[in-house]
Amino acid sequence: MNPTNTDARRGTGELPEKRPVSIAPDGTVHPVPSGDDARSAFEEIALKAEEHRRRGGQVVLVQGLGFVGAAVAATIADAKAVDGAPAYFVIGIDLPTPGSYWKVEKINAGLAPIDSTDPVLARLTHDAVHETANLRATTCRDAYGLADVIVVDVHLDVAGRTSDNGIHVELEPFREAIRTVGRLMRPDALVVVETTVPPGTCENVVLPVLREERLRRGIEEPVLLAHAYERVMPGPNYVSSIRSYPRTYSGVDERSSNQARAFLATFVDSSNGDLLWRLENPLSSELGKLLENSYRAANIAFIHEWTLLAEKIGVNLFEIIDSIRVRTGTHDNMRYPGFGVGGYCLTKDSLLAQWGVTHLLESDAVLETTLDALRTNALMPMHAVELVKEVAPNGLGGARIAVCGVSYVPDVADTRNSPTEALVDALLAEGAELRVHDPSVRTWLERADVPIVQDLEAALADADGVVLAVGHRAYRELGASSLTQLTAQPAFVVDAQNVLSDESARELHAAGWLVVGVGKGHWRRDGMHRRK
Amino acid sequence: MNPTNTDARRGTGELPEKRPVSIAPDGTVHPVPSGDDARSAFEEIALKAEEHRRRGGQVVLVQGLGFVGAAVAATIADAKAVDGAPAYFVIGIDLPTPGSYWKVEKINAGLAPIDSTDPVLARLTHDAVHETANLRATTCRDAYGLADVIVVDVHLDVAGRTSDNGIHVELEPFREAIRTVGRLMRPDALVVVETTVPPGTCENVVLPVLREERLRRGIEEPVLLAHAYERVMPGPNYVSSIRSYPRTYSGVDERSSNQARAFLATFVDSSNGDLLWRLENPLSSELGKLLENSYRAANIAFIHEWTLLAEKIGVNLFEIIDSIRVRTGTHDNMRYPGFGVGGYCLTKDSLLAQWGVTHLLESDAVLETTLDALRTNALMPMHAVELVKEVAPNGLGGARIAVCGVSYVPDVADTRNSPTEALVDALLAEGAELRVHDPSVRTWLERADVPIVQDLEAALADADGVVLAVGHRAYRELGASSLTQLTAQPAFVVDAQNVLSDESARELHAAGWLVVGVGKGHWRRDGMHRRK
User: Fold this and answer.
1) Which of the four pLDDT bands, split at 50, 70 and 90, describes residue A13?
2) What order do you get walking across the sheet with A452-453 strand by strand?
3) Burial of residue A431, with CB atoms counted within 10 A of its CB: 0-12 exposed, 13-18 middle, 19 or more buried
């Protein structure tokens, strides 16, 4: 790890400059420009946008350059008109804040501000900036006035994700972002909300705010507004997940729906059939996204009690599930035993649903089963902690434990709400000495105080035990002999994510290790959790 | 309805004969034979079986001729040897009781004792009895001694399916059936348990019982025993669901597993790849079946609270789910809003799982979420009752209500645990006057005191309201104009199973009807539950 970067991240006060700086995850430092600087840099963008429009093209503004917005901006920039030229001039906009500004500079340098293994995302961003020159980013609000289409990808999160003490959604920053749109948008611009929002947001929040701001400007014509949700998947198919997945949308009126459809059709691939699904109203579209992710979360939660059962009665739940998943169409999405749920969506979307139902729609409906599932998922890592406690020979206090895997998806450097967070917190609270490793993560943004050991050998060398927390290929390829060679003495291993084969588990146990695994009841039945 | 049949079904005391009779669902009356009669009828079967064996063929006995056993027997009888001749002589056995004996006579007449729309089942049964003459049924226990393979399809149910007061499984009749096998089986016969059983049954119940009975006979060689579960689906693909679905199995030892596989391979279709999935032990196979059906039941339950939500906030949950189901592999098994769960499996298998875990495996594991789902499913029909109460203009007392649909699957005459039971019970308890109709059900075995009106016109003529409880084609094709023509006056309709189109709903409302539907929030939003 580079100590300079870490120091910089801890606070900007230690740096000599007076201007605030924005530090990217890769450690690069970007002074945040003043409003005047941003405006003068923006002039060139405005000229290009107007030139594009004069030639009959349209201008798209993407508001919010996070995991979705940055990728969507590059994808839209790649859309082609009939003549093969870029269909749009695309402007990405974000806030001139330490947390966000670096994304603007990355994009303007032709770099995707997302650490993705998808080569297409890097290529599209590079080409749109350096080849076709139709993608630029800015912090200057004047950009809103240039856009024919404004795509809202503003961050909207839940505070207190799995707390039982009520759900709190801080809607004000989102509302303020929409207010900015209303103050500056062209009267005939189409607003497409792509952010995952609580049900009721488009019709009960966005529409009134836009109307109010436009009325202040004397604009009385109806707002063109639609909700259209993305299904971005982190990983090697990032851009494809934007372009080739079905897309649900709905406008607040027929005209908005039609214009949203026409816009989406320019970058959603329809070569294998129409992927655009219109629903009756934005509320249905908003709710669809939340139901979709709630279903996935509930299916993950369902298997947890069967996991505990399998461990207790000594059966291999993985092979049983494999035999059930052959029933395509009804059972092939059954989840395997696991270690919890990470990421941005599945950990919060059910909460957004309940919050919107209560606070925006003022309904007394309660999604009890759905919220129970989220609680179950949040508690899953604690089962791995129980397994560690069981096999740690001298308790957790002072135990040297290698935690292998920090991201929430195998072989993807995305650590948002990773279940490893809960595991690490619990092990540290019990006094364990951790060596946290991940082959694809250099710094752990969500736990900046927990160093990531870059070298697996160093992480394992003096370990009393190992927790395999992510199914990264590097771990799956390890095998028993590597593990025994890399550790100084027989240790214990908790396989929380089906990383070890049965053969490796048996070899480790034969070499004196204690071996347990989530859902691996047969290992327990065969006595691998006990010394030979 | 034929009053003679009904009287006969109510009790055999009214009939002149002294011998007990067994009455088939079609009303035919079959005197139960004495033991001597059965034995003399069996002699011919024994001769044929021995003849088949002398020619190098094998004899299969299917124990229990219910919904699974009768179909499995006909399917096995259709299996061919290399020379194209029948591979097996198949004997179906059941008890000489009023409840079961009629099945023996039906099969011996070449008729499937299952009211199925699958023409293949009827053909296979007919041909095996009348053409190839390798399928016969009997009540004579001597048959056990003829069999090379004994397939156990004995009924095993849960008493008190959805009660909170604990789960009770009466295992004794099943254990007694296994004891009979042990007393009479050939020492080298393979026993394949196909009945859905609580986890632990094969190894903790069947195996010790068989060993004990065989030891009494001086047989010390290991029992050949396997569990292999079927995935029979009532409906037009009955036989195909036995032959062409993947089949999970496991023996108590390697030899049993191998022999079970060899046997299954003779009638499970492997032309499109190997469908036989071997698991580590029978416990895994038993648990797999229960997990499979529990998953389905949980997925059905999941959507219920979203159904109530959709109705409260006024959205059409059906169109939302349609838009989500396009995500194949993860979301295409999402269930639609509905009226509850019927049938033999999904209503009980989670209870069997919990009972076996507690009583056969003596584990303290609790399948809380899974059992919650069953409770939710059992309560679903009560939501339809609430909707009826809401729109019945003068309350339920004395209200003439046409209940359309009794079976639990559209266009299939299977009424086992149909959700209509709970609806009818509740409506009757509130004093409603019901006209219960189903196009494919003549008598309702589970509610023999509730007459089935055969004529839809008669059911609707004087109705104050209609509950559409099953999506039978006859109802889906009805349309608004038929409904208004068939009823004397504007009425109400509760669409519990997505039977009516939006257009029909609007037409009915325009004609003065009150219209509500499960999951049809948009109908409520549009005011169809109120008089115009």
Assistant:
1) very low
2) A452-453, A433-437, A400-404, A465-468, A492-495, A514-517
3) exposed
Cα dihedral B257, B261, B263, B268 sign: positive
Contact B296 A522 (CB under 8 A): no
**pLDDT tens per residue, range B180-217:** 999 999 999 999 999 999 999 999 999 999 999 999 99
What's the N-to-C CA distance of chain B in angstroms?
40
In the predicted structure, residue A162 carries a pLDDT above the cut 70 = no
pLDDT, residue B1, reads 35
Report the distance separating Cα A55 and Cα A352, nearest Å. Answer: 42
Q: Which of B305, B320, B363 sits opposite A313 (nearest CB)?
A: B363
DSSP three-state, residue B188: coil
The DSSP bridge partners found for residue A250 are: A227
Cβ neighbourhood burial of B479 (10 Å; 0-12, 13-18, 19+): middle
Contacts with A320 from chain B: Cβ below 8 Å: 279, 284, 287-288, 291
Euclidean distance between CA atoms B91 and B144, whole angstroms: 9
Cα separation, A111 vs A116, whole angstroms: 11
Count of residues for chain B?
532
- Which residues of B are less than 8 Å from A522 in CB distance? 280
Task: Give the type of residue at B54.
Answer: R
Would you say how long chain A is, in residues? 532
DSSP 8-state symbol, B80: B
Q: Which of B343, B365, B224, B340 is nearest to B287 (CA)?
A: B365
- Reported in sequence order, the residue ranges of A258-327 that DSSP labels E, i.e. its strands, are 276-278
- Three-class secondary structure of residue B468 per DSSP: strand
pTM for this entry: 0.94
Q: With an 8 Å Cβ cutoff, are A305 and B248 in contact?
A: no
Angle at B74 between CA B71 and CA B80, to 5 degrees: 135
The yes-or-no verdict on residue B12 having pLDDT over 50 is no
Rounded to whole angstroms, the Cα distance separating B27 from B2 reads 8
Pairing of strands A158-159, A168-169: antiparallel
From A246, A304, A332, residue closest to B329, measured CB to CB? A332
CB contact at 8 A, B250 and B285: yes
Residue A246 clears pLDDT 80, i.e. is over it: yes
Which residue in B200, B280, B330 is closest to A296 by CB distance? B330
Nearest residue to B380 (alpha-carbon basis) of B411, B346, B420, B345? B420
Q: Rounded CA gap, A104 and B458, in Å?
A: 73
Distance from CA of B375 to the nearest CA of A (A): 12
Q: Exposed, middle or buried, A429 (CB in 10 Å: 0-12/13-18/19+)?
A: exposed
What is d(CA A368, CA A379) in angstroms, rounded to the nearest whole number? 17
* CA-wise closest residue to B232 among B86, B121, B322, B308: B121
Q: N- to C-terminal Cα distance for chain A?
A: 40
Could you read off the pLDDT of B446-482 as tens digits, one per residue? 999 999 999 999 999 999 999 999 999 999 999 899 9
User: How far apart are the CA of B229 and the nearest CA of chain A, in angstroms?
Assistant: 11
CA distance A399 to A232: 39
- Give CA–CA dist B384/B387, Å, rounded: 5
| Poorest-pLDDT segment among A340-349, A355-364, B56-65, B331-340 | A340-349
Neighbours of B235 (CB within 10 A): 17
Within 8 A by CB and 6+ apart from B372, the residues are A369, B301
∠ CA B63-B66-B68, nearest 5°, is 85
* Rounded Cα–Cα distance for residues B94 and A204 (Å): 65
User: Residue A454: in which H helix or E strand, if any?
Assistant: none
A522 to B372: CB separation less than 8 angstroms, yes or no: no
In angstroms, the CA B74 to CA B440 distance is 24
Angle between helix B317-325 and helix B282-313 axes, rounded to 10 deg: 130
